Amino acid sequence: MIYLLSISIGPVQDFITAARRTADLYAGSQILQELSKVAARYLANNSVELIFPADKEADGANKILAQVDGDPKGLAEGVKKAVREKLHQLWKETIDKLSQEYRSQIDQSRAEEQLDHFLEFYAAWVPLEKESEYSSARLAVERLLAGRKALRDFSPTQQNDDGVPKSPLDPARAAVIDPRQWGEASVRLEGGGYRPLRIKPTEYLDAISLLKRCYGALKSDKVVDTHIMARRSWQPEAEPDERYGKEDDHIQEPQPYFAILVADGDRMGELISRQDNREAHRQLSKTLDEFAQKAREIVPKYRGFMVYSGGDDVLAFLPVNRAVECAQELSETFRHQVKGTLSAGIAIVHYREPLSISLENARNAEKAAKNGGRNALAVALHTRGGTPVTVVQRWADLIWDELLAAYKNHKIARGLAHELYKLALEWQDEMLDEYLYKEAQRVLARKEARELKIPRPVSYRKQLLTFVEQLIIARFLSGIKEEETHAGTGT
Hints:
By secondary structure, this protein is α+β, with helices and mostly antiparallel strands. The chain is built from 16 helices and 12 strands. Helix content is 44%, strand content 16%.
């Protein structure tokens, strides 16, 4: 009997985003990808035909669809066992890089218990009697899987944690270390030498968070932290090796903002539903993997750091002055390769802001792009202590290039945005839009930015306020340093 087997491995977002440092975030995405590859390899090595992903080495597929000839339950149990064993293997390989002094301080029994209960694994399968029934069978198995995921298991974890502090990154789990003794802890690198874990006295880490911290430190030569990413807007050649392990957070960057980009394909469910046979679906899987690989080439071109790229999903850090260009190339590449549209959110955030909050801001920007009609870019500015400002535009309507060029060439005078904002707020409803437009033109001319195009009156006051928000955001996107703000708006 032939079956369609669908498998989901998690948690995904909660696991990846439970991070205090960029290296933690990167470690979460890499560990999840390693576990997902183990699942795909297990199926491929047991003569199962993979549909999504089509290739057992594809990155990012925490959800797997495959055609099975035989025992789907046995295969699902085999995948679950292989993935759990891989997690324990990663733990051992990573923790072994600590000195015996620190390994002996880990509560190993609690750590093993947490590792055993960490993964969320779900599987569903349906018979596939005829190839012509592929579409209906795929819908049926996806519904079954969604239903199974809705019925979560809540088996208690025996952590023996009475009086033990909970992990700040996952409060459901108790600490396996006493961080007050870990201030000098480091991991041993492959080429010799050591890299510090930078565990603070209040970071009572659970096993999963400790695994991510050690794994991230081992890979940190590849990880660009938020501090360096902010610096790259004015010093593009800045590299992470310059500061890892240095507690120089007190140093004020002249341009302290960086960008987080989150992108996602639009209406992917509809696109998949149009694939009415197995081979067409496999081809779409290959195309999405090709886009993910291309995205990993695009982001570094703009001096960015790819945190995660799998299928139609992208999460990356970028210098503020390269973020829009990068988003546009990703959108164009997706349109040409996948024949679909992409929505993206860019959050401009301070490098000292807690990473969890900055990531949430970027996710909300992506939602704003989706809610704004999709096939769009949302740019959200989050200054410290200021009111967030978000502008959503479809890709075809973007005018960021024009505004950024005006700032870079000092064609926008100090205070322009503030003056236009004040004008729009004080304008009375009964007064003609045309008069407001002419007054805005007069302000623009006085500020010597005559080449700038102020929108023509339609519902003019609202349009003018949106234009002002774009001016405010554009100053940050231009990457202007604090000492150059004389050319900005002063807002």
